[in-house]
Amino acid sequence: MAVAFATGVVIGAAIALLSALAVTKFQLRRHRTALASALVGEIAAIVREIECRDVVEQLRRATDHLQVSLTCLPPRPYPVFEAEAGRLDRLAAPLPRKIAFFYTRMGALAEDVRSFADGELRGTEYLQPLLRELEATMSLSDEVLRDLREVASPSPLHLLGRA
Fold first, then answer.
1. Domain total for the chain?
2. pTM of the model
3. CA dist 95 → 49, 100, 136, 140, 149 (Å)
4. Tens of pLDDT along 59-70?
5. pLDDT on residue 163
């Protein structure tokens, strides 16, 4: 009788532990998905703003010595990133590094473009590196968005068996 009772307690404890682990795993997955989704929205909005303002083309024309008025990049702050930066560790490496690099570069580039537009920086020697950095950062944004979308909307293919 005592053995049956002890076995029941052990089995009950194991079930409780497994249930707690399953709930924790579900919550972490849900938080990771929400984080990725929010970052996708913010990064996509930043990229769209740059594309709508045609900033890359304006920089290209400015490097060709054409007279252009330069539109500034979207200014800081980046509310989603700033609020969720401490939770980037929920995403698999190297995604947190790429995200942090994107936001850091975008902030610095926004300041550089604003300085050039305001006349604080002069000369095409500043524009070529600025243009290269902006193009590289835009390319990185494509990569980050692709990776984040996989986290935000995981493919159900791993759930399917052979058809």
1. 1
2. 0.78
3. 23, 9, 16, 11, 12
4. 888 777 655 567
5. 43
